[in-house]
Amino acid sequence: MTTRFLTLLITSLSFTLRAADPSEITVTHIDQSKVNFIKPGKVLENAEFKIAMSKRDKAGSVEIHAHDTDTFYIVDGEAEFVTGGTVVGLKEGPNGESSGKEITGGETHHLTKGDVMVIPRGTPHWFKEVKGQISYYVVKVVK
């Protein structure tokens, strides 16, 4: 099922990103041998989007991407995920990537298997708590 989801997602991104010229639409098939969570990492990257597999077993830092919209597809596990609000300990990094320690006043989402989360560029987001381990696809659409 995850391979089908990934193929569908890539196809959808291709249509969305290149709708102005349908003759340029391409479909990319990624063999399932490259799609596993034993070794998380990049699956596909080009100038318009990036796809990666990720997993976590603990909370992370707050992230803010000035140029990328993130879409997460939760494959397994669960977590408390916070979006919006005010970032505590904000540090601006290179290439529009900023980080922080935590978020106050944001909206908390309980993510579980099968959930999809879309985080528009510029929106603070944070894995506040991970219960066990969570595995997910990350699709970054570049501005």
From the structure above, extract its key features.
three-stranded antiparallel beta sheet, six-stranded antiparallel beta sheet, mainly beta, 1 helix, 143 residues, Jelly Rolls, 11% helix
List the helices and strands and how they pair.
Layout: H1 2-17, E1 41-45, E2 49-56, E3 62-65, E4 68-83, E5 86-88, E6 91-92, E7 97-100, E8 102-104, E9 107-112, E10 116-119, E11 125-142
Antiparallel strand pairs: 1-2, 2-11, 3-7, 4-9, 4-10, 4-11, 5-8, 6-7
Structure in words:
By secondary structure, this protein is mainly beta. It has one domain (2-142): Jelly Rolls, CATH 2.60.120.10. Helix content is 11%, strand content 51%. Strands 1, 2, 4, 9, 10 and 11 form a six-stranded antiparallel beta sheet that branches. Strands 3-7-6 form a three-stranded antiparallel beta sheet, with no helix packed on it. It has a two-stranded antiparallel sheet with strand order 5-8. Strand 6 and strand 7 form a beta hairpin. The two termini are 29 Å apart. Residues 14-20 have low confidence and may be disordered.
